[in-house]
Amino acid sequence: MVGRAGELRRLRGLVGSVDAQVAMIAGEPGVGKSRLVQELLADLPAGGRALVGQADPGTLGRPFELLLDALDSCRPEDGAGAELLREISDPALGAPERLRLALAAVEQADPAVVIFEDLHWADAESVALFERLGDLPGGRLLVGTYRPGEVDRRNPLADLFGRLERRYPVTYLRLERLSLDDTSALLTAMTGRPPTYRSAVTLHHRTGGNPFFLEELLKAAGPLEDVDLDKLSGEPLPWNLADALRRQLDELDPGQERVIEAAAVLGRKVPFDLLAAVTTLDEDELISVLRELVRRGMLVEIGDDEFGFRHALAREAIADQLLGRQRRRLHELAYECLVAGGSPDLALVAHHACGAGRYDDMVAAARRGVKEYLAKGSAYQALQLAELGLSEVPEDGELIAGAARAAWLAGLLDDANRYGKRRLRAAETAEEGSAALRLLVRIKWETGMVEHMAELTERLVATVDELPDGCEKARAMAAVAQSYMLRDYCTETVDWADRAIAAADLLGEPGVRLAAQVEKGSAQSSGSVNQEEGRQLLYRTADEAERIGEWLSAARALNNLLSNAPPARVEDQRRVLERMRTAAQRAGFEALAVASYFEHSAQQALIDGDLPAAIAAVEEGRRRDQGTLRTSRGTDYHGMLRAGLALEAGELDVARAIVTRYEEAFPYRKRKKRSLSTPGLFFHVACRSGDLVAAEEYLAEMVDIASQSRVWGDLAHDLISAGLAAKLPAPALRPLIGRLVARPESWRWLLDAQLDEADGSPDRALADYVRVTEAAELPKPVLGTAHVGAARVLLAAGRAAEARQHVARAAELLARWGGWRVAALDELRAGGAAPVLDALTPRELEVARLVAAGLTNAELARRLFISPRTAAVHVSNILSKLEISSRTEVARLLRPGSSDN
Questions:
Q1: pLDDT digits (tens, 9 = 90+) for 122-181
Q2: Rounded distance between C-alpha atoms, residue 756 and residue 80, angstroms
Q3: What contacts 780, CB < 8 A, 6 or more positions away?
Q4: Are residues 11 and 49 in the same domain?
Q5: 457 occurs within a structural domain
Q6: For 168, how many CA atoms within 13 A lie in the half-sphere containing its CB?
Q7: Biological process (GO) annotations (predicted)?
Q8: Which domain holds residue 260?
């Protein structure tokens, strides 16, 4: 269920309880209460029976209507059961007697789940019955659904909640409208393809995230597989949906109708003062009308003195029934009020200027608004405003440039590319051409078109010579430096960055200088020379950029710091990551605020040895990443990292599916600049699957690629570990580390140790394994594998006692890991490298079991009637005899299924 998985899990957890359980599900119409109930019923255990009653408007006068409706579909055939139902319906019997008979009917049916839907419409007798059902023998789940907006003081349901809580355990579930990500997921599920970002945003705003409205819009558009979501975003409402929404006006008086019609035209968020000015109502009168409209659920208070509709569809339906002259008059009044009051909301000013037909004023507001929205990080809003202006002046260079930058920041790369090209074609000066080229170079990088990026960079280099000394020339130099940095040309990056820094200093342009410093520091921190200098430069740049509000430079500096030279401690990395996310959000840079944020979160969990947390971070990133199509290429930004983690966890099918899908979209053999990533993942899958023929084919390709490009330590370790697991010979794997980038140096020690061990040189292997473990610079799971390697060599040499020490340390490092690394550890433990519990006395074994259960020394003392000091002595002796260093390892040794148990 889209957006409802957590609620469904909670409901399922209540089924089968020994005692009666009550769940109350609240939510507005169409939010998915009935669908949630249906999913619960579809998953009932075999033989589980359910009674489902549905209340309808107008049933308040028919006693026990919900029960009678529930029993109607399973009416007893025998005479006694039929007689019981007749008696329940007999108005001649007193209410207490009929309640007793109703309870007897439910007990006779013996359901596991009783569901009363739309309790806000239920009669008083049905509400009383629902309250008493928990008193029947046997545990059952009672589920009630209701609309909070329909429950007033006169409603029988109003007093039920307090009484229920006094009698039974009650679980409250409030279903909220779908988020943008959930709306995208529902659109994907219904149509079979992800929507574009624009379609998802538009449909989310139109429906307010109400799944019923969304489904109705889609159904009205024809066969789901043929629906054009981009077109649907602007289609008129289906008549049945529009009619249902307009029906809300039927009971309004003229004053209320006047306010609701004005609000429908004035926009999504309507300031109180603007509404008062347009409707000419005084403050007290308008407050009275708004209170009633809010009570009816037609409007909601969005913020301080701001009101809006629950759903844009309702606003749309009401506005559509107005005459064109009415709408223009309201827009004109709103525009004049906003301008007279000096409103800072330029998007609202432009919207009403457009609605009033004042197009010159609309364009002027759009130009100012694009700059302001970009400055405060509202990239998508800036894009919408730029496009509103371009609808009137399609060749306006300033608006085209604003649209290009806004689309890039928002991650809408196809749009950014289109507007960037338009800006380049329309450029009338060298400065305008340079600005367009700068952005296009970056866009080509992010869309993976590195060849085009290189060509545009050469054009930009040539343009630099044509530019007069000034800010644009300095910016162009910084952009050239960035292009070289992204393509790993460190020397060229530093040269161009220094030129840009010198020019910026002469001009007094700190923003340009900081941008150039990001490129220089990134290049230095990614190389083996001047790495610490580059690291410190990135820190200084981020600090200064945050201080003066250059948020894009701050975000990029911190992001590249995490990628190239992260702090040693995970806690410090997390602080830097949160700084990066904040800066990226303030800049409106989607790529860093979302995609990079979750990638770094996963990397930090990986370093800390927490595989489930790493997978969870990547999955959340992929959910956000794949929810909408921001580019026609449809790339899966986090897919390769997720595939790597799947291989760590032994999820071969998951890894195979991801890399196969990625390879179908972007065949790596057709790329001009190939990397080891894709063939490496295929190689890893083949090795772990035992497919040696495929593994050898991929290995040959990888050796060819590795001879022409740098190989990073973590990737080389993954590849060599997989190859050795598949029994490939060490000499065949050794060429993979010919151009190894070993930062820290312990990566090379680990790789040499692995290959030397496989190649029959245990002494050299042991020395390097020990060097790795003593340096402790690598991620926890990798260090755990180094300890396992050392233990394996020691055990083969008959040095079991020393091997156990490494096994104990590996167990600590791999406590939150899994997959092949833990399997290698367990294999050693089963082979005799685990500490021997037989060394413990009976009393020590008893203490060890309590330690494994999590007891502290003070708790041990109380449990065993000994002093805390004696308890501490016992624990110390246990750790010493088992040759381990922590209480965590005691728990691991004594876990169920341990070979030493």
A1: 888 888 888 888 888 878 899 999 988 777 777 778 788 878 888 888 899 999 988 888
A2: 84
A3: 607, 608, 609, 813, 814, 817
A4: yes
A5: no
A6: 27
A7: regulation of DNA-templated transcription
A8: 245-343
CATH code of the domain in which 292 resides: 1.10.10.10
Question: Could you tell me the two tokens for 878?
Answer: 């246990």
Tally the domains of the chain.
Answer: 5
Residue numbers in the chain where pLDDT is lower than 50: 77-80, 896-901
How far is Cα 269 from Cα 381, in angstroms, rounded to an integer?
14
Contact between residue 729 and residue 755 where contact means Cβ atoms under 8 Å apart? no
- SS3 state of residue 589: coil
Neighbours of 575 (CB within 10 A): 12
Domain identity same for 805 and 754? yes
Mapping DSSP to helix (H, G, I), strand (E, B) and coil, where does residue 319 land? helix
Predicted pLDDT of residue 91: 72
User: Is the same domain home to 170 and 188?
Assistant: no
CA angle 837, 842, 848 (to 5 degrees): 55
Residue 848 lies in a domain: yes
What's residue 79's pLDDT?
44
Alpha-carbon 224 to chain mean position: 26
Question: From its phi and psi, is residue 579 left (phi > 0), alpha (psi between -120 and 50) or beta?
Answer: alpha
Please tell me the predicted confidence (pLDDT) of residue 614: 95
Is 822 in the same domain as 853? no
* 228 phi, psi to nearest 5 deg: -90, 100
Q: How far is CA 357 from CA 219, 263, 329, 333, in A?
A: 34, 19, 10, 12
499 close to 477: Cβ distance less than 8 angstroms: yes
Alpha helices in 608-675 (DSSP H): 611-626, 639-649, 652-665
Give 184-218 as a DSSP string.
HHHHHHHHSSPPBHHHHHHHHHHHTT-HHHHHHHH
